Amino acid sequence: MEKFKGKLTGFMYIIVNIKNGITYPLQLSKITNITYSYIVKELKELEKYDFIFTVKKGRKKLLYLTKEGEKLKEYLLNVFIILNVKTNKEYKPKDLYS
């Protein structure tokens, strides 16, 4: 986890905003106001540590949380609630399966 030291805020917002199978990197960038290149870099790290996995559908890379990623998301949401931090803007992801 030393890789994330100093940049945990971005990492936390990325994890919290992943919705299994309906979120992709560009969408995360728009939701979190974090640059696309940073998102891609962090997603590679998260995949390396087995918090997420990706499935390519057409040209889009769909994001999924692993069991460990789900646990981490739950813990982070509790931290955000305790700190009274708004985790994301309201958004409705496009239905990628239609």
Description:
By secondary structure, the chain is an alpha+beta fold. It has a domain of 66 residues: Arc Repressor Mutant, subunit A (Orthogonal Bundle). It is 49% helix and 12% strand. The protein is built from 4 helices and 2 strands. The chain has a two-stranded antiparallel sheet with strand order 1-2.
Provide a concise account of the structure shown.
With 98 residues, the protein is α+β, with helices and mostly antiparallel strands.
Helices and strands in order:
Blueprint: H1 8-17, H2 25-32, H3 36-48, E1 52-57, E2 60-65, H4 67-83
Helix pairs in contact: 2-3
Key features?
98 residues; Arc Repressor Mutant, subunit A; 2 strands; disordered C terminus
CATH class placement of the domain at 18-83: Mainly Alpha
Strand content: 5-15%
One letter per element, helices H and strands E, the order comes to HHHEEH
CATH architecture of the domain at 18-83: Orthogonal Bundle
**Count of extended strands:** 2
Termini separation: 38 Å
CATH superfamily membership of the domain at 18-83, which one? Answer: Winged helix-like DNA-binding domain superfamily/Winged helix DNA-binding domain
Mean pLDDT score? 78
The CATH topology name of the domain at 18-83 reads Arc Repressor Mutant, subunit A
